[in-house]
Amino acid sequence: MKAMSIFRRLPLLFLLAFMLSPPLLAVDLVAAEIEPGELEGALWKFDLTPKGERGPMLTGFFRVSDGVLYQKTTRESKEFDKSVGKLSREGRDKTRVELEDFRAFGRNKNLHDGLSGTLLLKFERFGNCSGTFIDGDGKNWNIRCVRVQE
Asked: What is the pLDDT of residues 50-91, one digit of tens each?
């Protein structure tokens, strides 16, 4: 009887898996540009959403190596070689990052560059963290980060 109920739920599970897979495609495409072993540090995908108000969700990638955040110099660049921030640990599971000339993309792939401010992150579980980004204008953003390649 229990086995039968599992089989009835399989289509629902496949539908759910399909619905969650499109965001992973973008991650795969960016990671596919970098051969295994060529990346120094870890590659992270992030999503920024304004706190407490409606506004555009911004997204992008950065690489972390030796306590420094890097992004691509241009959209067409293959290397994450532009330094945009420095990490400092604040306890076992918290990190503070001072960002300068950070960039992210909006829904229509509109570039939002020149972002600066402070990023406060808390590690939730292996390869996942979230927190608050306070930009140079004092606006607060929620941020979620997922490690996509190491």
From this structure: 998 888 899 999 999 999 999 998 888 888 999 999 999 988
pTM, rounded to two decimals = 0.72
Instruction: Provide the pairing of β-strand 58-65 with 42-50.
Output: antiparallel
Cβ(51)–Cβ(142) below 8 Å? yes
Could you tell me where the beta strands, DSSP code E, fall in 1-150? 42-50, 58-65, 68-71, 82-89, 94-105, 111-125, 128-135, 140-149
Q: Which residues of 27-53 are buried (b: 16+ CB within 10 A; e: fewer)?
A: eeebeeebeeeebebebbbbbbbbeee
Q: Which CATH entry fits the domain spanning 23-149: 3.50.50.60, 3.40.50.410, 1.10.1370.40, 2.40.128.120? A: 2.40.128.120
Return the number of other C-beta atoms located less than 10 Å from residue 77's C-beta.
12
What distance in Å separates the CA atoms of residue 6 and residue 16, rounded to the nearest whole number? 15
Query: Do residues 142 and 132 touch, judged by C-beta distance below 8 A?
Result: yes
CB-CB neighbours of 10 under 10 Å: 9
